[in-house]
Amino acid sequence: MRTEDWTKEEWEMTVQLERITAQNAEEKHQELSKRRKSERPRRTKKDWLRYAANLAAVAVLLYFLVNGTILFIFRALWTALEKGLSEEWKLQGEGIYRGIALAVPLLGLAAARLLLEQGVKETPMRLKPNRPWPEEKQIWLFVPAFMGLSVIGDMVTSVVRYGLEALTVYPPEQVVQLPENPLGVLYYFFVICIVSTVVNEWLVRGALQKIFEPWGAWFSIVVSSVMFTLLHADLAKMPAIFLESVLMGLAAHCTGTLTVGMLLHFSSNVISFAFLFIRQKMQGVESFAMLVYLVVIIFLAAAVCIGRIYQKQVLRSFRPIPWVYDPKNRQSRFERLATTPLYLFVMIAMALRALWPMTGWTMPFWLT
């Protein structure tokens, strides 16, 4: 039916219907607009990687805070006490003070670990308990091999330190001075080789590596190893420390236990302590001969164990390291770390702390 054939009533009814339809559409549009304005803004998805990075940064800051506070208190007490002591008692007190200061960093590491435990609650990052012992019994063949690597690392460290001292104002190495008392030497061994090993692995491989593990095993090993290396703040030792840390991280991941990493760490500390003991407690030719014998024995044991590892194909018994897909249409994992302000600040601060000795200035005691 053509519009020119409509009656007047039909035309008026059609116009009225169109008005009602337009009015209803406008009312619905206004109602929808009001509803959208009244609704709360949609929450963005939380970036758990940045949360993990900030949590790790806060743990590092807590480590320095605890160490600095305790060292400040002990130094103030010792300064107040030594003024009224005789020379003999001053020597005794100085030894006690150095022994206490040796164990102070362990308290900071423990505080950082406890903070991480509390921080990962109610998050996807769980610090799952590890198995006490690895299933593969031949894993112990890696201990002598790792000791050989530690000796090579000490040699590389000596070369790097020599270059830094020759080309810059890098100060000579400040080694731990072992006490004369045999019980004191035993205490130093216990703190440096046993307690330090357990606490470091409990924090680094047991917590830092764990919280970054959801974004890939290699990623978590590298990130935690970089933080572990910077915590040592010794520029000459950093290449060796980083490589050893990566291997200990691989051991923790592939075996599912911290025991192997602790044993590797312990063996490395024992080698360093043995070299320190020989240099300080032996003299001349006797010291040099003992160092040579020890190095030869370690290298022979490492060569034999590496041959057995290759012959028995022990590496095939470990669980594989999965590949984690990292899309390129958004920020990568390392880019997200680099754009996390607190984490970036802490990492830069630790790097500057490692470079501080090259300035020739004395480092504050609470940063050592």
UniProtKB/TrEMBL annotation:
Name one molecular function that GO assigns to this entry: endopeptidase activity
**Would you say which domain of life the source belongs to?**
Bacteria
- Which residue ranges does the record assign to the CAAX prenyl protease 2/Lysostaphin resistance protein A-like domain? 184-271
One of this protein's Pfam families, by short name?
Answer: Rce1-like
Residue spans crossing the bilayer: 51-76, 96-116, 139-164, 184-203, 215-233, 245-278, 290-310, 342-367
- List where this protein forms a coiled coil: 8-35
According to UniProt, the name of this protein is CPBP family intramembrane metalloprotease
Organism name: Candidatus Ruthenibacterium merdavium
